[in-house]
Amino acid sequence: MPIYHKLGKLPTKRHTQFEKPDGGLYYEELFGTVGFEGMSSLLYHLHRPTQVKQVGESKDVTPKVAVDRNMKARKLIGFQVPPADDFLESRVPLLVNTDLIFGLAAPRKSLRDYFYKNADSDELLFIHKGSGVLRTMLGNIPFEYGDYLIIPRGMIYQIDFATEDNRLLYLESHHPIYTPKKYRNWFGQLLEHSPYCERDYKLPEQLETYNEKGDFLLKIKKQGYLHELMYGYHPFDVVGYDGYNYPWGFSIHNFEPITGRVHQPPPVHLTFETSAFVVCSFCPRLYDYHPKAVPAPYNHSNIDSDEVLYYVDGDFMSRNDIAQGHITLHPGGIPHGPHPGAMERSLGKTRTDELAVMVDTFRPLMLTEEALKLDDGKYYLSWLSENEAIN
Ligand SMILES: [Fe+2]
């Protein structure tokens, strides 16, 4: 996260004695990524963060791949993902490659029984339904419909939901998730032509600090396994931190669309990027205003990337028979484009209310066994002219 943030108490000079009011010293921890080259924060704990009491079970949670060489356009009915009480068990991985896991989840209960850390991946949660509070060792972030939550690898967290009716899209990215480089200046500040700026960020604000000794279960995801470690002190024992590595949020409703006289290409919707995929936000906006504009997109060959669209809300102009929670996968190597009749329907339209999240991966995606259960099985035929009847 390319802005400096601090919460709580800090010593005036880093790596110096930081005295507790009742004697003794706080314990400093450098919390960084990409070795010592990436973003980092300096944390001050009440207790040494290394006090493992017990190493318990390890469980293989590697997604089960059913189709590893996919050349078929797919439509997955995302809201058919069954709700589950437990936050981690609710996660259903659907599309995977060596860079990321793309999945959906419908968690019913708040995560309070244990703590969770993903040591493999930065996580992105997109809140389609529900609200609550992301509670982390570096502070809390209230969230609501439309929020992206970015949780850097290694962050210990829990999550509270206000109700049992929750729908999330999640990504586990083995590469750091950044704001788009093309929108940052050489200091990292977002430029004037960026669709969002620092003021839109949801930064962690309330630091929960516990001085509790006991048995605290931490489930750590590493190398596709979930490892259970018991710690001797409450993992939320940070009294203060500063730096650049912390969880943060951004609402898709604060993404300001870039429009033009003629159709703008998908990169104008770019919201986050990694070295292996991008995340784009398709938001309500005015259509192109050239008198002869064709608001529907042109056919395009995404030869080098697989394209995944997750439909959130509104009427998706270029697609027939698409509803909330649907996922379409357009594999690289073959062109795709508007459905029959969609181009003609778009002529003269002045605005769209569509809301969707797109993930374009630079390596092909594989489908899991769970994905095939959601597959409508016929989407790849939907560009045939005779399918105009299904409008
Ligand atoms: Fe596309």
Automatic annotation (TrEMBL):
Keyword list, A-Z: Dioxygenase, Iron, Metal-binding, Oxidoreductase
Segments forming domain Homogentisate 1,2-dioxygenase N-terminal: 108-250
Main enzyme class: oxidoreductase
Catalytic activity, EC: 1.13.11.5
Signal peptide boundaries: none
Presence of keyword Iron: yes
Name of the molecule in the record: Homogentisate 1,2-dioxygenase
Pfam families (UniProt xref): HgmA_N
PANTHER family listed in its UniProt record: HOMOGENTISATE 1,2-DIOXYGENASE (PTHR11056:SF0)
Iron listed as a keyword: yes
GO MF entries: homogentisate 1,2-dioxygenase activity
